[in-house]
Amino acid sequence: MHAHPDDESISTGATMAQYAAQGAEVTLVTCTLGEEGEIYVPELALLAAAEADQLGGYRIAELRAACAALGVGNVRFLGGAGRYRDSGMMGMPTNDNPRAFWQADLDEAAGYLVEVMRETRPQVMITYDAHGFYGHPDHIQAHRVAMRAAELARAEGVGPEKIYWTALPKSVLEAGLHAFADTVGNPFEGVESVDDFPFGTPDAEIAARIDATDLHDAKVAALKAHATQIPEASWLYALAGDFGNEFMGVEYFTLAAGERGPGDGPNGWEADLFAGLAVDEPAPAEAGSR
Fold this sequence. Notes:
This is 1D-myo-inositol 2-acetamido-2-deoxy-alpha-D-glucopyranoside deacetylase. The chain is of the alpha/beta class.
């Protein structure tokens, strides 16, 4: 469950790619079209909200291309494409648009997600923490909607057994402060302490570390598909090149609901989001089928 196109690739792209490659059914639900995003492709500048207001439609194609790179084919928009509009950053006038996701009725929006759960019967759900990871209103609303939907779906017996929230350990942020200090386009420039970030989770609260470094290229390809939002000169690509596959291929989560499974990763963290769950092996393809 993500707020805008590109959020899925940035924060969970490696995880999605890994489970898709393993044969798990991966469903992405995105809450808005990202209409208020900045545009980094000059020839597309007139698609912006203040101009033709066509960016959202364009980003549908970017999202589908990104998910194709990740191997994910089940791509949905909450309530259908265009149901909810990108709310913009917190405090912006766009927060008050009646169609803004920030203004969505909680139970109505959750009901749309429950419909997806009835169909897909997820064992695991991933979304953001109550702060929306960094405070964006659509991320906060996605958290609220996802958690309410899980509650409603569980009452029907179709809800997820485990719920994870995206996270970044403070130890990783601390290492980044030092490792990136002298790089061009340092994203941490001017930051002296990990406590200055609007995000960061104490290591003791991390439950899972997904190592999908072998799918680093898939995540990079997914990011590149979101060309209007992530410029070619983005520090993401520069740092990925400088610091290797781990920068792109390792993702972290806290466990918000369900029983923590056995962990054989660093710090005893789970290395599999399905740890402790009964999981059916993917059925082998029938002879001659495609």
